[in-house]
Amino acid sequence: PCCTADNFRVDLNDAPTSIWNTSASHVFTASFRDAHPGCDRSLKAIFNAWVVHYNYLCQVYAKQQMVAREEQARISNLARRERRLQLYNHRLQTAHRHSESYPSAGDVVQQLGPAGMSSDESEHDVGHGERTYHITRKAWRSATITATLRMLDALHLQMRYQQQWTATAGAWPHLHMPSSQLSNREPPSGLPKNFY
Q1: Cβ contacts of residue 153 below 8 Å, gap of 6+?
Q2: What angle do CA 80, 117, 145 make, to 5 degrees?
Q3: 126-159 per-position pLDDT tens digit
Q4: Coil, strand, or helix at residue 156?
Q5: What's the whole-model pTM score?
Q6: 164 compared with 57, residue with greater pLDDT
Q7: Contacts 24+ apart (CB under 8 A), 129-132
Q8: Which residues pair with 135 in a beta bridge?
């Protein structure tokens, strides 16, 4: 048998007629008869009743998995939104700090707003090690505006170091890598023509 009554296991991702689940059904049937010797149901009836219950368990499991996926998607979307807001704030602070050298950078960031910041996708959601975030490319955004934002990102990273090359306090910036993946979000409306 695939398992025992004390270590009973079924595969809820497979059909009740699979080799494993059929074997598990026979284990259940025998165990049920041993535990209830006075039961007047035949082995076939017990077997069939278990299969019906197994199908119910599959439905419950599938619903739980769907809810878990929807919740994970909701959490991921919230996290991406929060990272966009942090990116906006970092860029705006950097632009203000370097306003003499780059007087128009602050206006660029403010006009784009948090919605105009690039989204990213985590390379992995589980496991150990530092996550790598792949930046989704905005096809609508002009190369000049993108270059300005990349410049602000480089300045922000530079600001995180002191003269002795020791990092300032705070969480280390996420590792963002450019990618060929295009963003499917609609561009913000009402931006200056040279932003597109």
Answers
A1: 90, 91, 176
A2: 160
A3: 444 556 777 787 888 899 999 999 999 889 888 7
A4: helix
A5: 0.66
A6: 57
A7: 130/175, 131/174, 131/175, 132/175, 132/177
A8: 120, 178
